[in-house]
Design brief:
This protein is α/β, with parallel strands linked by helices. The chain has one domain: 3-Layer(aba) Sandwich (Rossmann fold). Helix content is 53%, strand content 12%. Strands 2-3-1-4-5 form a five-stranded parallel beta sheet, sandwiched between helices. Helix 3 packs parallel to helix 7 and helix 6 crosses helix 7. The longest helix has 23 residues.
């Protein structure tokens, strides 16, 4: 089984995927972890590394190639990244999108990274704008298009501990006999 979990920074992906990976005994592969490791290796923050990626498109392309390869070649994986659903495409059994209002996400990021909510909000807006432009330019992906996802969930509406339960219940309730079709992932240029 291949499950993808996508969403913007601070949506609760990291918190949720650990529980989902455990529930379904899946290996967790995180694009965000890989991206932050690459930034740390260069002594840069995620925002600074995003700026560098705007100038050097190979940073994104290398990361995305790695994630797509995992999606196409490995089994029993939970793939987590902003583009996981798009990169896995039709190979994914379930594509999940997690989100929350930007102010909520900024507060979560501020707590996690020990910075002010105002700074986190400004950096999050800048990061999201930067990423959206790059995804469209590189691959023709409109990150705001959620039509490919089987489930889109506002994580601000439920307690942190309930979000994995909701998603686990949805996946467990899936019956292939009642499946009338998932949305195809079309129009993506996998030009790495």
């Amino acid at each position: 089984m291949l499950v993808t979990v996508s969403g913007p920074p601070g949506a609760g992906k990291s918190t949720t995927v650990a529980a989902l990976a455990d529930a379904f005994d899946l290996e967790h592969v995180s694009g965000g972890d890989i991206f932050r490791e690459l930034a740390d290796e260069r002594g840069l923050s995620a925002v600074e590394f995003n700026r560098l990626a705007e100038e050097d498109d190979q940073i994104d392309r290398d990361l995305d190639r790695r994630l797509r390869t995992v999606a196409l070649e490995r089994d029993e994986v939970l793939l987590e990244s902003r583009l996981a659903g798009w990169l896995a495409g039709d190979a994914a059994d379930f594509r999940l999108w997690l989100d929350a209002p930007i102010e909520v996400r900024a507060a979560r990021i501020a707590d996690r990274e020990d910075k002010s909510a105002e700074t986190a909000l400004a950096e999050t807006r800048e990061r999201e704008e930067s990423e959206a432009l790059r995804y469209r330019e590189y691959y023709g992906i409109d990150i705001a298009d959620l039509s490919i996802y089987d489930i889109a969930l506002n994580t601000a509406r439920w307690a942190e501990s309930e979000v994995p339960d909701i998603l686990t219940a949805a996946v467990e309730a899936y019956d292939p006999a009642g499946d009338e079709g998932k949305y195809p992932v079309d129009g993506v240029s996998y030009d790495f």
